[in-house]
Amino acid sequence: GGKDRRSGLILTIPLCLEQTSMDELSVTLDYLLSIPSDKCKARGFTVIVDGRKSQWNVVKTVVLMLQNVVPAEVSLVCVVKPDEFWDKKVTHFCFWKEKDRLGFEVILVSANKLTRYIEPCQLTEDFGGTLTYDHMDWLNKRLVFEKFTKESTSLLDELALINNGSDKGTQQERERSIDLNFLPSVDPETVLQTGHELLSELQQRRFNGSDGGVSWSPMDDELLAQPQVMKLLDSLREQYTRYQEVCRQRSKRTQLEEIQQKVMQVVNWLEGPGSEQLRTQWGIGDSIRASQALQQKHEEIESQHSEWFAVYVELNQQIAALLNAGDEEDLVELKALQQQLSDVCYRQASQLEFRQNLLQAALEFHSVAQDLSQQLDGLLGMLCVDVAPADGASIQQTLKLLEEKLKSVDLGLQGLREKGQSLLDQISNQASWAYGKDVTIENKENVDHIQGVMEDMQLRKQRCEDMVDVRRLKMLQMVQLFKCEEDAAQAVEWLSELLDALLKTHIRLGDDAQETKVLLEKHRKFVDVAQSTYDYGRQLLQATVVLCQSLRCTSRSSGDTLPRLNRVWKQFTVTSEERVHRLETAVAFHSSAEKILQECPEQPEAFNEMEQFDEIEAVGKSLLDRLTVPVVYPDGSEQYFGSPSDMASAAEHIREKMKLVSLKKQQLRQPEATTPEG
């Protein structure tokens, strides 16, 4: 960094006690002299050879070497001699006499006399000057500069090759060029950072003073390095910006190619193996278990598809992000990829959903068919069991249950038809896309199966309906049979009640002929009621016989009902006849007695014949005798009218009337006795 009085650069060569390699020194000098600019070199160099720690032979060799290395640039060589001068041999070699041959002036000077030729401010402390200089710092900076220069120059060449390759005509050529020279040998960011740090250090040394506060003038090499570094940095930034754009384009292109490759993978799988899986799955099964197995197989297919659909979602997001970036160049291609991917995925998803809905509809159809079949089996089993109810109520309950089962079968068949028609409609829609194949044959098998199931259920239901009609008729006849038997038994009860009422309440014989005739008329009406009851019972029993013949069964109750009815009717008939006879006898008795008792005594001629009185007495006695006699039934059993007190009351009334008749007879006899004496 120091300069001589001609503004030439000062080059210091420190020599040491160790052996100095002239080759290394020559290389070093060549390097150092290559640093200054040509303008600086034209002003010449002042070389200080510090020989204070070396031998004269080495110093002389170095000076002579300068003639070969830099003869034109060196203007002055100052050899700093030690305090104790070398031996006398040095005197035999006078450098000033060799000036013409050497091309530069050589002087021997001690360190403290060096300021005669060079200003102290341009000398370092080693030579008694004030110039601040740190060789290790300079060396480190120089190494950084050299490294930066080398790396940046190499990087610029690589980036230029990459960038120029990207500017070629066709896309294929650009991609081929980028593929060959895509990655630089060094990291551009690192090189740029190194350059900025170096430039910052150089600029800082230019404007800052030394530690002692003395103004420091930077060396020419540093001044020269700053524009070099700035120029390299500008070039690097330009090329690196272009390189980043190339990388971005390449990254975008690579991403686009990856997306395109993945899209084709998804499309190829969905249109290939995915569609083939669906093509092989066309059946609907012939039972619940078969449909469930097909559903399980379909779920496995859906599971495989879901993995590809997940890839589709990811790709769609990536494509959307690229579309939002707004690169016009790739918009058409991206939209085409997105449309192609969406079309294939949606079509495949629709086919999967259709297949799932079809299998679900088939499962529901088979489920309804199975339930209906079980209902028909239950109904048929109920119809095949012979009816042996205990009474009409149980028959009615069984008939109601039968009707409910038939109604349930009707609803089940209606539901089966609805499910079947819905399934047929879905199958007919399958032909619109059909997994890319003709499914007419497969659809025909499915359609035939569905229609066959519905027709079979319809036939089974029709057979059950026919059997239900027969069973309904039979059960209604049985209900009627039980009703007839119940009503016939009721008729027997009614007739028994009439008989009991006749014996217990129809006791009075009347106080006079008129009352007795009224009782006789009421009794005849009472008998008509009993006759109607008996006839009703007979008709019911005849109806049970006809129903039993129709049902081909024997009644459990009509067998003893008819004898009971006939027995009660005979008892009633006998009792009724006895009652009629007593009433008729009472009418005759009261009529005759009332006639005699009502005739006037002035007409004795009417009583000339006493036989009338005797007849009345005979009728009265006969009536009294009947009141004491029980009614004898055909089976030999006996039954009295009323209680003994009731009979005694009726007999007492007859006796009183007989007494009146007897008194009347006596009164009529007295005039007959007095008339002859007169």
UniProtKB/TrEMBL annotation:
InterPro entries: CRAL-TRIO_dom, Spectrin_SESTD1. Keywords: Repeat. Residues 1-135 form the CRAL-TRIO domain. Pfam families: CRAL_TRIO_2 (PF13716), Spectrin_SESTD1 (PF24915). It comes from the Eukaryota. Transmembrane segments: none annotated. GO terms for molecular function: phosphatidylinositol-3,4-bisphosphate binding; phosphatidylinositol-3,5-bisphosphate binding; phosphatidylinositol-3-phosphate binding; phosphatidylinositol-4,5-bisphosphate binding; phosphatidylinositol-4-phosphate binding; phosphatidylinositol-5-phosphate binding. Belongs to the SOLO family. This is SESD1 protein.
